[in-house]
Each structure stands twice: as structure tokens, then as C-alpha cells.
Give the backbone structure.
Amino acid sequence: MRYKELPKKWKVITSVLIVLNALLIILIILFTLFLSSYREQCAQLRAPLKKDDSLLIGERMKIERKGKESVAVNLYMPENIGDAKLPVVFNIHGGGFVGGDADMLDTQSDRIANEWNAVVVTINYTTADVKSVLYGSEEVRDTVMYFADHADSYFADTTRFTIMGYSAGAYYSAEAMRLLKENDFDTASLVLCYPWTTGLPTKNLSSDCPKTLFVLAGEDPISQKSKSYIEAMKAAGVDVEVIEYDSAVHSFIESNNPEGKNDSAEGMEKVINPMQEKMAREAENYIGKWLNDGKK
Amino acid sequence: MKFKELPRKWRISIISMSVSAILLLTALIAYVYSTIGSLLHVMIG
């Protein structure tokens, strides 16, 4: 029996199935093209943020991992290292999960390493256009574990490890803290600056979680949206402190550094200006003091 | 005409196309989930 000879009902069913299969193949091809172009766009946006090696203040390092790709990090040691072991701050950049670069935090990390007398590590986690958010969080976790395992080489005090993240970086920080807890490693504290909290799980929160400081910006919807997560943390018994800068905007802390004041900063006058910079330095001082309050 | 009454060739064709449509749909969902699934999760919640 030929197609033309089929009863009408079976002709329709056969035609629908042919169209459906063709449509699904086209969708898979279109999605592949979209993904490739999206990844290319994201990579192009990230590229100018990378500093030339000769201009980088920190030291580039690769954290090797068994059976996985290495993690690129920048290391900042304070100028005056005494006999005492140092706290370690893992400084996690933001960028909407698909942007940003650890090099954006170069000047700031060098400054806080000296002002807070701490080892500072910035991490170039794999962004979510390339690998899952969990994969990036695992890179942060593995970096923390590397410094815990090699603490003596870096004068690191493993009881004073802090993960500090901005915006999407705060999401990675909170997830890394959860993964570290699963590894039976407790970080001393967590600092979440104007954190992106949508999708962050709350069911694993407990009073065992490290003390957490939230730095919020009053003029930032993302900061305001994080308040329900803050309440969930408090309800779970986590030691939470919140500081809010009423007239601050999103990314005011890391943007008001030389790396934020490049050509791509056009139209960023609301974020990069003397008033926001003043609040950024105040926030850094506050965080430094807050971290030292927990000094053992 | 019922499905069973169709010639064998058409029965196989219809079953093959149905299975293929289900597999392609599953592949598309798995592909999206494995690539940008976590990004969608953090964006939408």
C-alpha cells in the first residue's frame, strides 16, 4: 500500500509524525547553534577583563585535581608575614554566572591581603555557560581543600578560612560552603555581598553553618530579594549579621577599583563614582573587622 | 482501518517514527538540561 492509498486518519498521523521528527531535529540543531554563539559571546565579554600577566599584582597558580581539569587561581600574600598563621579569604568574583574574571579583583585582593593581614585567593571558576553551577562550586570547594591540605606552605590557619563572594559569586560561595560541610570541612565564616540567592537550597541550612555576614546595597533589587534567604538562614539558627548601605548599588565594592574603571565602564557612572567608592572602602573595613572579631 | 489492519511496512514506519519522536524529545530536554539547566535553575529558581 502506498502513502496515497492510506486511509485519511493514518495519512494525518504519519504526516504529523514526520513533521514532529523534523521539527525536533531542527530544534536540536538550532539549540546547538544558539549555545555555541552564546558561549562565544560570553567568552568575548570576559576576555577584556583578563589582565596581562605582567600587569597582574597577584601570582597565577593552577590547582591540580585528580581526574578533573585544574582550577586557575590568583594568590595574594600580605607583605609582612610574621610567625603567626594567617587567615585565608577566598574572594569569589561575580558576573551573572556567565561573566566576570578573578583578575577583576586583583587590586582589591592585594589591598585586603595587606589591610586584613590575610592570604587572599581569587578563583577563576568555570562559568555556567560552559559547565554547571555545581561544577563551578566544586572548583571553589577543591581550591579551599587544596589550601587546607597545603596550609603550611601558605602560612594558612585552617580554622580561619573565609569564603567571600559578590552577587553570583556569593551563590558559588554558599554552595561551596555546603559542599565543604559534606566533606566534613568547616569554614570559619562566609561573607555574601549583594548575593544572588534565587535557586539557592535552604534545606541544608543549620546552626552548624559558619557565621555569615551579608553586605547589602539599598539601591539594588538583588540585595533586596536576598532577604528571604537571610530569614531562612536565621530561622535555621545560623549566626547571621546584615549590614546595608542605603544608597549603594549592585557591585559597588568590586567595581570601584582600577579594574572596574576601564573602557567597558561607560554608562557605569551610577556604580563607579566617589560616593560608591567611599562606601566600598567602608564595607571592606567593616568586613575586615568582622572577620577579626572571630579570631581565635 | 485499525492499526493492526495496516500493512506491516506502515505499522513499522509509524512505530519507528513514534519512538524516534520520543527519543528526540528526550534528547533535546537532556541536552538543554545538561548544558544550561543549572543556569536556568538559578535564574528562575
Summary: Chain A has two domains: 3-38, 53-293. The mean pLDDT of chain A is 95.
